[in-house]
Q: What sequence folds into this?
């Protein structure tokens, strides 16, 4: 290959390189070899070696089997593998894509047909189940405190109940669907929502979903996402997890974000997070037509599928503005003109899901029922739950039992026990019968709490109080390796000390 002579190279892979003689200086060799890139896959490394240099414009032709109506691909070049330039003038000519260039480097093509196939994969993910069974710390311990939980059957929602780092009850709910749902909770269950700057949060900020019951809290949960609730209420509390118009709309927005991520990557805009890409959309403007549609009634799977399909079309229609905001300039406008073909292909794919979409998007809800033990004001967390003796028939103590008999009972005081270091006595007012809000001895009950490691020897502990013996003596009922509770007698007026049997927390 010499200056002044036309040079042409045809590869078995369908690449044709043409250099007019006037665009060459020096002499050397023209080569083209396959090259791979982690983002763009397989491309071509086109090079001049020896003393030959490109001093004008060369033409590259890439052969491709086009789908019907498929537009010209996104073509980028790179010399260092980290920065990419997007070809601005890309034409289709008789089964070839043609570009003109004044430099040789590594060239990669992203075909719109391939992008359409990837968007189909995104839709497949929407219709598949997501998430997995979560695990909570101290699941057995929270049940010993008197909490119980049950739910509807099925795998559209997963949950676990345990204790958080502060030993407070915590419920974790995981969305088992491939799209965003809403979780509506009653008072007493406080959600700890994800950051409003994540993808779901950014889209959700533009829409609001209404609660079905005043006072409830609605939180959006993404596909496979988990939501933690702090439990502060008592009695029976419900969480309803269901599909909704708002959830379908957020899922459509997520689909648009994922689609744009693929387009930007193909155009050389790599390294952007999904949150940053979501920030390129003007969601309030994009979804303005749906401001009232989020309260639409979606009662069947077919209605849900139709709503979701329309929402997909709406959010994909917002891609052009986001592409321009991404800084692709005139190239971005060129890409935007090809979006109609992609959107049409996505709509065709959506229509092809048929009954599978109706089933996956069904709006039927899922209910979790959490029952917390009755709360006795002033009773420490360590004493919550039910405690019973090991003898038969047994004696028991529990806040729920006291509240059921004395609805206004409360713990009015506590004190350490000098003769039993580590133990604590609690006074419980069953009924305020003294006129000033206080309780008489007859309207009171007394409990002693023994934490782990604190033992009990009746004779030894009561001798200093002037009791020569214990009758009965329940020393042997105490196991210091476990926490215990005993119910104290209101009066000790006998010549001997009347002991009480130790009670242990029961499931």
A:
């Amino acid at each position: 290959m010499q200056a002044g002579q036309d040079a042409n190279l045809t590869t078995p892979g369908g690449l044709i390189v043409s250099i007019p003689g006037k665009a060459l200086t020096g002499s050397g060799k023209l080569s083209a070899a396959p090259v791979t890139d982690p983002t763009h896959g397989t491309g071509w490394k086109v090079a001049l070696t020896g003393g030959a240099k490109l001093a004008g414009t060369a033409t590259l032709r890439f052969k491709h089997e086009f789908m019907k109506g498929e537009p010209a691909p996104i073509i980028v070049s790179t010399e260092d593998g980290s920065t990419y330039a997007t070809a601005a003038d890309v034409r289709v000519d008789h089964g070839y894509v043609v570009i003109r260039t004044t430099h040789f480097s590594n060239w990669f093509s992203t075909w719109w047909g391939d992008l359409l196939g990837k968007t189909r994969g995104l839709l497949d993910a929407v219709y598949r189940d997501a998430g997995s069974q979560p695990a909570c710390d101290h699941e057995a311990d929270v049940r010993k405190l008197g909490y119980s939980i049950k739910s509807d059957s099925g795998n559209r929602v997963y949950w676990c109940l345990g204790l958080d780092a502060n030993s407070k009850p915590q419920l974790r709910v995981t969305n088992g669907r491939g799209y965003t749902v809403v979780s509506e909770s009653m008072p007493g269950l406080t959600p700890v929502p994800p950051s409003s700057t994540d993808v779901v949060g950014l889209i959700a900020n533009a829409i609001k979903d209404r609660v079905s019951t005043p006072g409830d809290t609605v939180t959006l949960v993404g596909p496979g996402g988990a939501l933690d609730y702090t439990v502060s209420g008592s009695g029976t509390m419900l969480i309803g997890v269901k599909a909704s118009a708002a959830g379908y709309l957020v899922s459509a927005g997520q689909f648009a974000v994922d689609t744009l991520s693929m387009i930007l990557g193909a155009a050389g805009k790599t390294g952007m997070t999904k949150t940053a890409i979501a920030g390129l959309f003007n969601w309030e403007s994009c979804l303005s037509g749906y401001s009232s549609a989020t309260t639409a009634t979606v009662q069947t799977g077919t209605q849900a599928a139709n709503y979701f399909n329309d929402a997909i079309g709406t959010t994909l229609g917002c891609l052009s503005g986001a592409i321009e905001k991404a800084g692709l300039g005139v190239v971005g406008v060129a890409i935007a003109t090809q979006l109609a073909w992609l959107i049409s292909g996505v709509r065709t794919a959506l229509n092809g899901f048929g009954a599978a979409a109706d089933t996956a998007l069904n709006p039927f809800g899922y209910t979790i029922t959490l029952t917390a033990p009755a709360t006795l004001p002033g009773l420490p967390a360590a004493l919550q739950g039910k405690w019973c003796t090991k003898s038969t028939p047994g004696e028991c103590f529990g806040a729920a039992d006291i509240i059921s008999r004395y609805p206004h009972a409360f713990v009015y005081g506590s004190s350490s026990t000098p003769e039993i270091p580590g133990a604590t006595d609690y006074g419980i007012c069953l009924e305020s019968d003294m006129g000033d809000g206080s309780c008489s001895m007859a309207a009171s009950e007394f409990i002693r709490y023994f934490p782990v490691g604190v033992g009990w020897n009746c004779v030894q502990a009561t001798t200093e109080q002037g009791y020569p013996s214990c009758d009965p003596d329940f020393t042997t009922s105490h196991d210091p390796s476990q926490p215990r509770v005993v119910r104290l007698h209101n009066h000790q007026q006998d010549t001997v000390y009347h002991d009480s049997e130790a009670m242990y927390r029961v499931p």
The CA atoms of residues 238 and 479 lie 38 Å apart. The chain has a mean pLDDT of 87. The first helix runs from residue 112 to 127. The longest strand covers residues 28-37.
